[in-house]
Write a structure and sequence with these properties.
Helices cover 44% and strands 13% of the residues. By secondary structure, it is an alpha/beta fold.
Amino acid sequence: MRRRLVAMVAGIALLATACGNPLAGGGEGGATGDIIIGSSDVGETLLLAQIYAGALRNAGAKNVTVKPPVGSREIVVKALQDKSLSLVPDYSGNLLRYFDKNTEATTPQDVYAQLKQKIPSGFEVLRQAPAEDKDLLVVTKKVADSGVRTFSDLGPRCKDLVFGGPGQWSTRWKDKIKSLYGCEFKEIRTTDTGGPVTIAALKSGDVQVADLFSTSAKIAANGFVPLTDDKSMFPAQNIVPLVAKGTLTPDQVDALNRTSAALTTDQLTQLNVQFSEEKRNALDIADDFLRRNGLKT
């Protein structure tokens, strides 16, 4: 899966280096009592990792390390298996599909319930957050005002519209949107994964429909209109901690569960804005979030 915020990746990597966090290797967190928090190469998950770290320190954890980007989900899962990582932030829908490629679950409740059933031994998922960062189809105001507000509205209009999105769109969603909504776009253009190229193409009118993400502040800022996925083509993507079993104490699990309960999509959107647009320090952003939600004294 996805994502954007390349600048976030570089910024938190530099921050971790400046704080003396190890960039590679490291011992087994479960064996030493250290808690090592990793992430995929998704920029947003790095900011979430800092929030988790702050919550754990407030719960009394002494040795908490946030690593810079670890890599793809395959690499992250392997690191959790050998306990060179203790936990990572992840997205419920994509995590479920990683462990069960044939799942048909789409709602937050069904995705999470199946994820808890399908996750292999040696792992556990903690409480999922209300916050989601999921795919959206977004159109210009002009297209929306012409009567396109849902994916079903879009279906018969697709033949006249150019779509812009990530390179994997055709393999992942082209057939699905055709079968569910009868949508076959006039043209599918590879732009980027919810980033500046896609935004620019939608603003200029080079594309009229684009794949963006639910925590993107660029949607409202540019007057774009997200469409309602009325037949649930895209699965839920709630934020969820994926943990190597046995690496956290009950108090630490409780601290992360309370943190997840406080995290909403609106808050996550604002956190991303503060980091990527306002260029605030990631540790300060995480600290403010925890204090604002009564999770840090």
